[in-house]
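Practice record 12: protein with flavin-adenine dinucleotide.
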Amino acid sequence: MKIFHLLYISTSIAPAKSETIQSLLDVSSKNNKAKDISGLLIYRSGYFIQLLEGDETVVNTLVARIQRDARHRDLKIVLSFKDEKRLFPHWSMGLITDDQDADMLALLSKKLTSSKIENRDNMAPEAIEILKSFSKKYRKHR
Ligand code: FAD
């Protein structure tokens, strides 16, 4: 089975406190493990960026639920793709807090959602490469 990967960006309705992020991570880790979903979460300058990977229907159902969450708004799907493997097989939800990494993906995600479709297709491989580099870098931190 190919793994469906979905990356979205959304705007936090208020500056998220570390307790809010921790509680999101706790709920997400527990729920996602049960659904065989893995991925990562970034909170940066008022934006959430989340990668979800797993079965396509299960991921889409979860995104629809997350979209209704009152803690954020304007959820936009940045990219989605299928691949043989998961990038974060051991993270039911991992938080990336490294400033440079978070900034890099946040910037690219914003660019991807605001650019025209044809440019998006050109930028998508760059975003996937960033995710793959995170996958290698954070393997040690699991
Ligand atoms: P309930 O906790 O009963 O929630 C009922 C409703 O209230 C839902 O609409 C819920 O979204 C909302 N809600 C819950 N807590 C709060 C709160 N403290 N403040 C405001 N509204 C609240 N869930 C996952 O399972 N996996 C994920 O990967 C995941 N990622 C998320 C990423 C972001 C950026 C956000 C904001 C939320 C994420 N969630 C995730 C949480 C998800 O939106 C649901 O809150 C959670 O799945 C529980 O949903 P529920 O309907 O079972 O629960």
